[in-house]
Amino acid sequence: MLKKILIVYAHQSAGSFNAAAKDAAVKVLTSQGCKVEVSDLYAMKFKASATAEDVTGTVKDAEHFQYGEETMLAWKEGRLSADITEEHRKLSEAAVVVFQFPMYWFTVPAIMKGWMDRVLTLGFAYTSEKRYSQGIFKDKKAMLSFTTGSHESMFSANGINGDMNVTLWPLQNGILHYCGFQVLAPQIFWPPPHIPSESRCSMLEAWRTRLEGHASFCLNVEPDVTTVHWCDCSH
């Protein structure tokens, strides 16, 4: 049985390296028989801020508004805003979610953080009882694929930016694995603006090769290993 892949993509330019990485993933995965859906956040003008506008109808406590509790109730009652509901559909159907973005200030762009804030709704994506290895999305995989503005050596344990594994911990463990995702090793494209075009082409080719090697992406085949490799930055 073929799987569905969701790519959550955040870049303003269709001529960017991130766009090329996203397009390469769509082409490779589609050629393998996957059904690929892309949430192009900038093109969608996706709202980044988590506000009471995400709830249709009357909120339970307007004076002491609590976003998590109000949106959980709205989710249960079918009263979330249409844009969140549509992303819930995509996420529910997806077996694998790939986040494609340029790293901004050591994390994701605001529009993608807004997607995480609003779409990973309490009740839908996690509860106090269903987290980490017992999380709601424990049967799904997730991967960060992103570009940097600094060279790899600057993100080493002794580098000026610090260890990339530490930088990614809040995203990979605190958000994705918290919701139960099996977090795959990130795909890191070290600074495309600061390397020769041949090197950029080589990075894209390595990305295509990696995707082609993931037979379990598109087929219901169990991976050979059960360990979650969320912080292996050598890949």
From TrEMBL:
Which spans of this chain does the record mark as coiled coil? Answer: none
Asked if the keyword Cytoplasm belongs to this entry, the reply reads no
Task: Return the Pfam families for the record.
Answer: Flavodoxin_2 (PF02525)
Q: Gene Ontology cellular component?
A: cytosol
Per its UniProt record, what InterPro entries does this chain match? Flavodoxin_fold, Flavoprotein-like_sf, NAD(P)H_dehydrogenase_qn
According to the entry, every stretch annotated as the Flavodoxin-like fold domain falls at: 3-208
Q: Which GO terms describe its molecular function?
A: dihydronicotinamide riboside quinone reductase activity; metal ion binding; NAD(P)H dehydrogenase (quinone) activity
Which SUPFAM superfamilies does the entry mention?
Answer: Flavoproteins
Keywords for the protein's UniProt record, in alphabetical order: Oxidoreductase
Q: Note the PANTHER family from the entry.
A: NAD P H OXIDOREDUCTASE-RELATED, NAD(P)H DEHYDROGENASE [QUINONE] 1 ISOFORM 1
The entry sums up its family as follows: Belongs to the NAD(P)H dehydrogenase (quinone) family.
Query: What protein am I looking at?
Result: NAD(P)H quinone dehydrogenase 1
